[in-house]
Each structure stands twice: as C-alpha cells, then as structure tokens.
C-alpha cells in the first residue's frame, strides 16, 4: 500500500524504457509529465504521512543522481545521452524518497544491468546499448528490495 505513490514513475519509466529500446530516444515529454506527477504523488504522500523528509530525499537525491549522470555524460561524450540523464532524474524522484540506501542499491543495479546488457550486445556484434531500460529496471529492483 505504501508504495502506491510510486506509480507515476513506474508507468513513465516503462514507457521510456520501451521507447528507448525501439528508437534509442528518451521522450522528454514523458520525462516531464512523469516527473511532475511523481512529485505530486510524493507531496501527497508527505501530506498523508505528516513528514516532509520523503520529499527532501526525493528531490535532493534525484538531483544528485542526475548531476552524476550528467558528469559521466560530459566526461565521455556518446556513452550516455541527455535522455539518460533526464531518465535518471525521473526515476531518482521515486527511488530517492526511499532513502540513501535504496539509491545506493539503484546505482549498483544500474551498473550491473548496464554491464550485462552491454555483454549481450557485444555477443551480438554491437558495442552500445539503450541505457534507459537499465536505469528503470535497476530502480524497480532497488525499490522491490527496499521493501524487505
């Protein structure tokens, strides 16, 4: 029941991952709408729970995660795109409200899933992957594990 407020980012994340796999693009309109709806859902959760810490964690950790992804994208142009950065921001709004430990798990899973996907692609003779699916899948995994 407590995780129902994560529905906006789950729906937007699935749409983004699917689109990125098919077109290698992250639709910014889905990121923007998903982010706004996720923020509203977190605010509603904060009002219901009488605590504003989830909102602070959500926004702060999402911004920090997106800035790290932006730095990685700037250090090695072409490895990550701006769509991956914005996808990280959106999913960070969901993962961030669950705390630093969940965000750390998310980053670990992003790396593991990204490497696994890259390994599969290299086996097929390709050398790049759409990274948004790894971001979204890692968020789902971290959120699921945080429930235990």
- End-to-end separation: 14 Å
Radius of gyration: 15 Å
Strands, total number: 0
Shape: globular
Structural class: mainly alpha
Low-confidence stretches: none
What is the helix/strand order? Answer: HHHHHH
Structure description:
- The chain is globular, with a radius of gyration of 15 Å.
- By secondary structure, the chain is mostly helical.
- It has helices spanning 7-23, 28-49, 53-75, 82-96, 100-123, 132-146.
- Helix 2 runs antiparallel to helix 3.
- The chain is 78% helix and 0% strand.
- The chain has 6 helices and no strands.
What topology does this entry show?
Elements: H1 7-23, H2 28-49, H3 53-75, H4 82-96, H5 100-123, H6 132-146
Helix pairs in contact: 1-2, 1-4, 1-6, 2-3, 2-4, 3-4, 4-6, 5-6
List keywords for this structure.
148 residues; mainly alpha; single chain
Concise overview:
The protein is mainly α and 148 residues long. 78% of the residues lie in helices and 0% in strands.
């Amino acid at each position: 029941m407590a995780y129902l407020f994560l529905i906006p980012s789950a729906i937007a994340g699935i749409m983004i991952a699917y689109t990125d796999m098919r077109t290698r693009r992250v639709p910014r309109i889905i990121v923007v709408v998903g982010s706004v709806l996720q923020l509203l859902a977190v605010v509603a959760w904060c009002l219901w729970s009488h605590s504003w810490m989830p909102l602070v964690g959500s926004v702060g950790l999402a911004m920090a995660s997106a800035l790290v992804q932006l730095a990685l994208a700037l250090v090695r142009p072409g490895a990550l795109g701006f769509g991956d950065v914005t996808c990280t921001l959106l999913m960070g709004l969901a993962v961030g409200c669950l705390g630093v430990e969940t965000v750390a798990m998310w980053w670990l899973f992003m790396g593991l899933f990204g490497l696994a996907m890259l390994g599969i692609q290299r086996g097929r003779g390709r050398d790049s992957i759409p990274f948004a699916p790894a971001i979204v899948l890692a968020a789902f995994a971290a959120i699921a594990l945080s429930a235990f």
